[in-house]
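Researcher: Hi, I'm a grad student and pretty new to this. My advisor asked me to get structures for two proteins we've been looking at. I'm not sure of the right format, so I'll just paste the first sequence and hope you can take it from there.
Model: That works fine. Here's the first sequence with its structure tokens right after it:
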Amino acid sequence: MAKTKVKTRILDVAAKLFYTNGYNATGINEIIAKAEIAKATLYHHFKSKEAICLAYLEQRHSTFIKGLKVYVKERPTGRLQLLAIFDYLREMYRNDEFFGCWAIKTFCELPQDNTQIVALIQKQKKELLFFLGEVVGENLKNLSIAETEKISGGLYMLYESAITESHLHKDDWPIHLARSIAPSLYGNAIEKTKT
């Protein structure tokens, strides 16, 4: 049990530093100092900074996607479920510790030959895209696969832009704007569903 607590503490400290300060700006010695552990203890749990980063990305994505799925299911079907990702993002933005997308921030700091972290980020982004496809499919009936992909892809692109731009501008107007544009992606389709 103690080992799990130490590993969790290391990951929590590293996650906060990676997200607020950036992956490159966070050194192993800083993680060790803030976690109040010995260097050997860190390397007992994680073989490298990259291993810590992979665990951090897994943890952040898992928390995000689980929270988003619950949030969407709690909304009435139809329009509100289709817009839920923007409402969820707005709630994330209102958190004092919002620094944009943890995955994209990390990706932008990596050399392109770091294939392991890049592959994980791509996998996680695809999981979000596929989930949005499920939301579209459940809320807009009788769509072709191409229509579903176009709408879910549009929602995904609006979300990705909104999370980045809201962090850049330190304002939530990009989230509100993305949310207001989203219905233009499926306006006719939602009317078809009602009939």
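Researcher: Oh nice, that was easy. Here's the second one.
Model: And its structure:
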Amino acid sequence: MPSPGNELVRKHWTNLVAALAPPAGIPEYRASFEELCATFPVPAGTLVEKVDAGGIPALVITHPDVDPGPAGSTVLWTHSGGYIFGSAHGYRSFGAAVSLAAGARVLMVDYRLAPEHPYPAALDDATGAYRWLLAQGTAPERIVVGGDSAGGGLALATLLALRDAGDPLPAGGVAVSPVADYTLSGESMDTRAHVDPIASRETLDGLGALYRGDAAVDNPYLSPLFGDYSGIPPLLLLVGTDEVLHDDAVRVVAKATAAGVDARLIVGQDQTHIWTLFASILPEGQQAVDEIGRFVRQVSTK
């Protein structure tokens, strides 16, 4: 049985959907999501450092109880928001939670947003931030690349792009509720629409169109479901049962596993889109963050 916090999460999503209804536009989308993120507490003493990650603005977030040291692990995270809204600043609470769970610092990338900066701007920023970490002397085996929602799809695309470019690959990848298929062909787009309080085929198609521009919807750097996962490092994907994106995660894990990747899937029973974001008010969200932390510790400390 889901915890009482589950209903609060659904209320937050319902309120956000109402705030985004027409005539609201992109400025309202961005402001409303930042207002939601501002309700999540940032632990006192959390170190939040602005950095220029090779020309890409980012925050390095370290929980006050974490001292990763100069050789510690780093989680590079790309936030949610359909490539249209969201920010590193709004993700400080989540970044601190991941930092504590993983015993690592979190590089929260403020990638450029569409429609001002369509594809491949976000991908260029994510790969650029990773290469900046390498240039700073961070060993690739001490880095995990992760993200949620659109940022989850971006994390997977980043791994594919780095592999294809011949870059040293990180220790692993994490994707929470990833948007991995802009053809929107997953059965859950229809079968789970009645239980998803925030995402829908129409919403994903509309936001996706603003980001993808002229790119083909099955471009693997845009829809990583269609990528070749050969040689990709271990993956952890998380998705809720109550998501239209459920099948995106399931199919990515199946494809990666078939390519020989150590890919694990965690399905949150009765959970909605990116329930990890609500870790401060949702026990199941905190449990999922703890799973992410265990994965990071496992793959980046070998």
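Researcher: Is there anything I should tell my advisor about the second?
Model: You could mention this: Residues 5-300 form a domain with the Rossmann fold fold (CATH 3.40.50.1820).
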